[in-house]
Structures are given as C-alpha cells and as structure tokens.
Amino acid sequence: MLTSESVRVFAPATLSNLGPGFDVLGLAVEQPGDYVTAEWSDTPGVEIVEVRGDGGQLTTDPARNVVGIAAAAMLRSYDSRVPEHRPPGVRLWLDKRMPLASGLGSSAASSVGGALAVAELLGGVTQDELIACALQGERAVSGSIHADNVAPCVAGGIVLIRSYNPLEVLSLPVPDELRVAVVHPHTAVVTAEARRLVAERRFEIAQAVANLGQLGALVTALHRSDLKLLGRSISDALVEPVRAPLVPGFSEVKQTALEAGAIGCSLSGSGPSVFAFAQSDDQVEALADRMATRFQDVAGLESDSYVGKINVRGAHRVAEE
Ligand code: HSE
Q1: In the predicted model, is pLDDT for residue 27 greater than 70?
Q2: N-term to C-term CA, the chain
Q3: Helix axes of 66-79 and 106-122: crossing angle, nearest 10 degrees
Q4: Can you give the pTM of this predicted structure?
Q5: Residues near 164 by Cβ (< 8 Å), separated by ≥ 6?
Q6: How confident is the model at residue 140 (pLDDT cuts 50, 70, 90)?
Q7: CA–CA distance, 204 with 208 (Å, rounded to integer)
C-alpha cells in the first residue's frame, strides 16, 4: 500500500572489516547515523531538496549523491510491481549526522537511508531488496561493490557476507555484554583510494592463512559469547598493515587501547576511525577517552568518540521531526 505522507528514516553508522574480515564482516552502532525524509512528487525521478550537516561537501544532484542513486534504484525496482497510481517521483531531504570519509560507513548510511525512505513510501520491501538498492549507491562512491557497511546498516547487529555472487548475508549472534568504542580523529581517508592500495598489493599465502584462522575464531567467539576469544581474533595480517600508515597515530592508539584492557582494536573500515571492543559501559567510556587523548598527544588530532552497544535493530522508520 502506498503511503501519502512524508516518511523519515534513520540509518546507523557501521564498522566494517572488524579486523580479519575485509569486505565480509560489519556491525551497526547506535549512533551516529543519517536521517532521510522522503515524500512523493509529481515530478518524475528523484529530487534532493536539501542536504544538511555535510559542511557543503555533498551535491544535491541525485545522479551524483548516493542518497539519490539508491532512492532511484528503489523506485526502478518497483516499476514493474506498482504500475498503478504511483506518483512518478520522490523528493528527498538528507540530514547527515555523521562525518564523511571517516570509516564509519557514511556513504552506506546515506544509501540505505535513501533506499529505505522510498521503500517506506512504497509500503515496505524485503531486506535483500533494500541491500541490493543501497549497494548501487555504495558502488558509486567506492568504485566497487562491498556490502560490509550496507548489510549491517540494514540488518543491524553483526553480519557476515558469506557470498557476493549471489549476495548472501548471515546475521551473527551479538553477546549481550559487548560494547564498542569508536574514535574518529579529524583527518580523512578516501575509501576508493584506500581500496586501491589494497587491490594493488600482492599477499603471501601465510597472510591469508592467518586471517582465515582469525575469521573462523571470531565467528566461533560470537556463537560462544567468548569475549576473550573475540579479542584474540581481532587481528588482521592483510589489510590493516597496508592502511595503518594512512592514519597518523594509529599504532600508538591501538597499543593504548589494548593496554587499557580493550577486547581487540583495529581500524574501522578504511579508517581513519578506530574501534575497540569492551565488556562494560564504564570500560568503554574510559577506552574512548584514552584513545582520543592518545590521538591528540601523538598526532595532534582532535577526535569525536562514540560508545555504546551494538545496534541490533538497523535502519528503521522514525517519527517526523
Ligand atoms: N570493507 C571496506 C574496506 C569498507 O575496507 O575498504 C570501506 O568502508
């Protein structure tokens, strides 16, 4: 059933890779995230009325902004199913409440927000359809398909991408006591460039073997709620060493987090954000403070920090402001 009023959705930030799981592991956090509002329009296609919170960095051209690309993909996917009486277009408002080029899945959040807002106007779609449409936005900015931000943003929780062709996303158990600290130092890493660095690298089989073992152990740890094993598994022999030099102070911040009792620490996606797992609210607050202070001390970088539980709900409709 089509919805006539405007709808507003929230799409959370996501941490991807989680150490050994390049392009196959990701999780959603409670905050930050993007808000997207959509309403039907008599003008065909997608119009982006306004983008807020981006510091003027993003275009309102719907063909060049992921929120517009994903929304258009969702409209197209419905063309064959809802031919009757549907208005020909949508108007969108994107309210970015998270930093760009931060390793927090900013483009994924906007893509999911655009696709979900249109889906809500259309009366709802399946999780797989939502992921497929949002991935079209994500591909436009990263230059390749990777679902480890989009999938947890849609599904919530911690997910594993078992296969890309066909896409198969598995939800993993989330231990109750698991908390995450994310520290975003004020420097930018462009995902497409960070991916090129990885793509150009030749790896040894021993590095792949190391990551295979850690990835299997990480999944096992989540099934057992074994946080010690989870911590030992946050280890990446492939990608983290290649990208660490892109983030000034990363090695020192990681060392500080581990010395302060973090259950594992690594880059979030392509960085520069760094995440650390903890097992209590007090511990996670203290970790974030120590990590942010270390970024300031060793690299002169101010940071924003986010702490909390894993977001098991994922993107969802919210009340109008
Ligand atoms: N898995 C992707 C990467 C995530 O590390 O390039 C990018 O946010």
Answers
A1: yes
A2: 23
A3: 30
A4: 0.95
A5: 145, 147
A6: confident
A7: 7
What is the residue-wise DSSP string for 137-198? HHHHHHSS---TTHHHHHH-SEEEEEEETTEEEEEEP--TT-EEEEEEES----HHHHHHHH
Contact 138, 308 (CB under 8 A): no
- The predicted pLDDT at position 228 comes to 96
pLDDT tens digit sequence for 240-274: 999 999 999 999 999 999 999 999 999 999 999 99
- Residues with CB under 6 Å of ligand 1 are 16-17, 22-23, 105, 146, 148-149, 191, 194-195, 269-270
Structure tokens at 217: 């152990």
Length of the chain: 321
- Alpha carbon 285 to its chain centroid, in Å, reads 21
In the chain, where does DSSP find H-type helix? 66-79, 106-122, 127-142, 150-155, 191-200, 205-224, 227-233, 240-243, 250-259, 281-299
> In this predicted structure, what is the pLDDT of residue 2?
63
Bridge partner residues of 7 (DSSP): 38
The structure tokens listed for 42 are 């008599």
Place of tokens 């002169």: 300
Contact assessment for residue 137 and residue 36, using Cβ atoms and an 8 Å cutoff: no
Q: Which residues contact 114 (CB under 8 A, 6 or more apart)?
A: 36, 38, 66, 67, 68, 69, 70, 71, 74, 92, 94, 134, 137
Q: Tokens in use for 159?
A: 């997910």
CA distance 145 to 293: 35
Catalytic residue among 37, 191, 240, 256: 191
Whether a cis peptide bond, with omega within 30° of 0, leads into 272 is: yes
Pocket probe for ligand 1: among 66, 191, 275, the residue whose CB has the most ligand atoms within 8 Å is 191
Q: Can 252 be counted among the known catalytic residues?
A: no
